[in-house]
C-alpha cells in the first residue's frame, strides 16, 4: 500500500508476430493485440499495488496501423493515474519491421484496473508519483478520464 513512481511499475514486452496470430490479410487479429495490452496493463497494476488485480474498463482503444507477420511488437505500459482503488494505465503498441528497422505506432489504449483484497473486494492502494513533465500531463489527463468515466457510469 505504498506510493510508487511511474517507472517503478512500468512494463515493456516484446512479441514476434507469427502466422497463427494473423488474419487472411496477414495482419494481426485485433483480439491478439488486445490480449497483449491487457496482460501488460495487468502487470503494471500488480507491480504498483502488490495485489491481485482485475480489468474493470477498457477505454479508447485505437488501431492506427496494421501489424504484419514477422513484425516485432513492442508493448509499453505505464500507470497514468491512481484513485482510491482504481488504476488507469496507458498502453502504447509499436511494430518494428526487423529488416528495415522502421517502427510504427500502431495502437493506443487506456485500461482501468482495481486491486483486490483477500476476499475479492476492491482495496485502497498507494498513490502514483509522476516524475517527468510527460508523466504529470498523463496524470492530469488520467484524473479527468477517470472522472468522466465515473460520471458516465452514474447515468
How does the helix and strand content classify structurally? alpha+beta
User: Helical stretch count?
Assistant: 3
Radius of gyration: 16 Å
Mean pLDDT: 94
The total strand number stands at: 7
Overall outline? elongated
The first-to-last residue Cα distance is 31 Å
Indicate the percent of residues in helices. Answer: 25-40%
Low-confidence stretches: none
Main sheet properties = 5 strands, antiparallel
β-strand amount: 35-45%
What is the N-to-C order of secondary-structure elements (H for helix, E for strand)? EHEHEEEEEH
Task: Give a description of the structure.
There is one protein chain. This protein has 155 residues and is an alpha+beta fold. It has three helices and seven strands; from the N terminus they run βαβαβββββα. The protein has helices at 6-9, 30-49, 133-154, and strands at 4-5, 11-16, 53-63, 72-82, 86-96, 103-115, 128-129. The chain has a five-stranded antiparallel sheet with strand order 2-4-5-6-3. A two-stranded parallel ribbon has the order 1-7. The protein is elongated. The model has no long low-confidence stretch (mean pLDDT 94).
